[in-house]
Amino acid sequence: MASFRERLAGAIGLNAATYEEVEADRSATGQAMAVVLLSSVAAGIGAIGIFGPAGIVRGAVSALVGWCVWAVLTYIIGTRLLPEPQTRATVGELLRTTGFAAGPGLFRIFTLVPGVGWLVALVSAVWMLAAMIVAVRQALDYTSTLRAVAVCVIGFLIYLATALLFLPFAG
Questions:
Q1: Per-residue pLDDT of the chain (171 residues; tens, 9 = 90+)
Q2: What is the largest CA-CA distance in the chain?
Q3: Percent helix, strand, coil in the chain (nearest 5)?
Q4: Which one, of 34, 39, 130, 106, lies nearest residue 22 by Cα?
Q5: CA gyration radius for the chain?
Q6: Distance CA 48, CA 26 (A)
Q7: CA–CA separation, 24 vs 164, rounded Å?
């Protein structure tokens, strides 16, 4: 069994085997939630440049709520609307894999850097989407990456809308 650091590095590196490992390991749920919380805090710190000190709360709450919405939608879309015949997944399995898929969001702390913050935000968002695709493909036992892309893109669009709508009210 890999350490938390090894799992986080594997998830950030889009390693499918890492996602399979955390899917199967029920004890990894706490680790997955730690990744989500750390990623949300990183988003909050990065939001200081936009909202000042209140950005910490606004950004962190927005990121956390957005991830929750994205994870739940991904489960519903992936298991109910677009399953493959062999798709079998529990909420826990999907929460563990999608929790680790939030790993690239740790880089959102660097959105504080003037002049390149927007680029960091864009790259980390695309990277998180890619990680989510790998996580969903593994957790839902998809043979089609395109199906995982569809599930994640639909959920991601709703995630973004939620985050953007919620952001002005946080904090």
A1: 899 999 999 999 999 999 999 999 999 999 999 999 999 999 999 999 888 898 899 889 888 988 888 899 999 999 999 999 999 999 999 999 999 999 999 999 999 999 999 999 999 999 999 999 999 999 999 999 999 999 999 988 877 776 677 655 544
A2: 49
A3: 85, 0, 15
A4: 34
A5: 15
A6: 35
A7: 33
